[in-house]
Amino acid sequence: MTLTATTHLNFRGDARAALEFYQSVFGGHLLVTTYGDFGMPKDAPGADGVVFGQVATADGFRLLAYDIPGQAGGSPDSAGSTRRENGVTITDQPFFVSVEGGSLDEVQGYWEKLSSGASIVEPLAASAWSAGFGMLTDRFGVTWILGVAADDYTAS
User: CA separation (Å) from 10 to 53, 97, 133?
Assistant: First the structure.
């Protein structure tokens, strides 16, 4: 049996913009289906909202997203926040999205793109467990952890 977990992000009207941004960061194929595409009258409020959206790459990255019906105004204030304080990560968010790459160069490329308009929680740098580890909250309120896969790193 093969089991795959895929992150599914919920937005309040900006799923399309978020998916387009994530495609610009990670590459791959973008698929967006709106409520109107599924039969909602095209002139109804919310018909242009994303009912199913996906970014998928050939190397296995996959992210799903949609717009919560009847919700508008971008990322909710209740999305929470994440910060570093006295060497500890403090958050009230229920999850982070973690992406690991095979090399520091690969991860740095994603970091540079994803950090545009982001709030940096932990700068991308070598850590005790990784050749590169960083944390940021992007312009859509999603907190990402980027790192180099631990089995590719030998502490010196």
Answer: 10, 13, 25
